Every structure is written in C-alpha cells, then in structure tokens.
C-alpha cells in the first residue's frame, strides 16, 4: 500500500482588503484587510501544532499572505502552485463591483448561483475546475507522504475539489461552502474523507468538530457576493 499524506488542510484565504467590493479574480495587489490578517494568524495558531511537511499556495497575494502566517508558525516554507488560482469565471467579472454584476453581465450571476455546473459563458467548466485543483491535491499527496499538507486557495476552487475528492455532487457547489479563512481537512484515500471544517471563531483545538518565504513554483471562485 502506497504511503499517503496524513491529512490535507485546504485553506480558503482570509478576508481581502477590498473596500470597493469588486470581484478580485486574479488581479494582483489585493492583500489582506486588518481583520483578514487576524484571521490568518488564527489559522496559523490552529495549524501550528500539526506536523506540517509542505505549504502550497495560489500565486495571488491574499493567498500568499494567508500562507505566510501558517509558515511563520510551522517553519515550513511556502511554495507556489499556479493551478490553485481562481476559477476563470472570476476573471471574467474581475474589477467589476459585485453590486453591478447583474447590470453589466445580465443573467450571469443568477446562473452562477442557480446552476454553477452548467454555465455556457465560461471557458472553464466547474468539472474542469474541480479536476484542476483535485489533481494538485492528489499530486501533492503523492509527493509529500507521512505528514500534513496545507493548500491555500480560493473559495470556489476549494469547494469544487472538496466535492470531487469526497465523491459529492458538483451541483452542490454553494451548499455549505467554506467561508473565507475556513480550513477544510481531508484524509486522502480512494475516496477522500472529510475530517473536519474549522473557522477562526472555533476552538483552537485541532479536530474538535464544532517574512514570506516562497521557495519554488511549478509551471502551468468567484465567491457569492456576500463573501467578497
């Protein structure tokens, strides 16, 4: 039987400094808000006691800053994986205020919320998004056995991969979606098992159910408006 990572912690980046409430997409220059920095530090304290062997992040600044706080606690350097970037639907809307999407892209936000698995106006389907991020998780599981992995990404990519890896329906993308700064912990296997979901307001005890160091890079969701 092959060796696998003990657990994979899929971390949704902390709150972004985005006072204009625009769709961030893959635009550079969006760091963390003061509240987001506090959230990231709480994530670092939460994961700090774990035997982390690797931390991988989306290349976007708010993900990297979230990963930085985890790295500061664990001493494990941050590595960048471009396939952990946002869903392409967010690139389509990026720079536009959430409040104006219905006007500027008629029918698209409604379709995203009602049938995210069947969107004719995006060039990356939800199924392809899920496979993109799940493929990263599976590869890192192979690459880093005998310890815990951290993967820092965005809300929709994490949720899509979570559903695919656990054998759930992609149509349920918006059901129990992890909020910003949530940590979804999965146990690898034939079908991955969800161990727990933690958020900064929860207990710091792991598993209770209730300077940036980028050392490597591999080559190559938009959340609902309430989480922007």
Tell me what you see in this structure.
By secondary structure, the protein is α/β, with parallel strands linked by helices. The protein has one domain (7-227): Phosphoglycerate mutase-like (Rossmann fold). 32% of the residues lie in helices and 17% in strands. It is built from 7 helices and 7 strands, in the order E-H-E-H-E-H-H-H-H-E-H-E-E-E. It has helices spanning 34-47, 61-74, 88-93, 101-104, 108-114, 126-143, 155-165; strands at residues 7-12, 52-57, 78-81, 148-153, 183-187, 193-198, 214-218. Strands 6-5-1-4-2-3-7 form a 7-stranded mixed β-sheet, with helices on both faces. A hairpin with a 5-residue loop joins strand 5 (183-187) and strand 6 (193-198). The longest helix has 18 residues, at 126-143. The chain is globular. The model is unreliable at 203-228 (pLDDT under 50).
């Amino acid at each position: 039987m092959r060796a696998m990572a003990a657990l994979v912690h899929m971390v949704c980046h902390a709150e972004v400094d985005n006072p204009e409430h625009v769709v961030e997409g893959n635009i550079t220059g969006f760091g963390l808000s003061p509240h987001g920095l506090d959230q990231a530090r709480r994530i670092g304290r939460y994961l700090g006691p774990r035997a982390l062997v690797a931390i991988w992040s989306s290349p976007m600044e708010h993900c990297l800053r979230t990963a930085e706080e985890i790295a500061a606690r664990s001493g494990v350097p941050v590595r960048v994986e471009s396939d952990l970037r946002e869903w392409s639907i967010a690139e389509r809307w990026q720079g536009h205020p959430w409040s104006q999407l219905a006007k500027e892209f008629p029918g698209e936000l409604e379709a995203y919320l009602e049938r995210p698995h069947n969107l004719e106006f995006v060039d990356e389907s939800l199924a392809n998004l899920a496979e993109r991020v799940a493929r990263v998780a599976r590869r890192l599981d192979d690459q880093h056995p005998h310890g815990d992995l951290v993967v820092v990404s965005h809300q929709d990519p994490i949720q899509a991969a979570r559903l695919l890896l656990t054998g759930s329906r992609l149509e349920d993308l918006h059901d129990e979606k992890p909020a910003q700064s949530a940590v979804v912990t999965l146990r690898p296997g034939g079908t991955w098992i969800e161990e727990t979901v933690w958020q900064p307001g929860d207990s710091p005890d792991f598993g209770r159910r209730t300077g940036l160091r980028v050392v490597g890079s591999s080559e190559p969701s938009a959340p609902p408006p309430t989480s922007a």
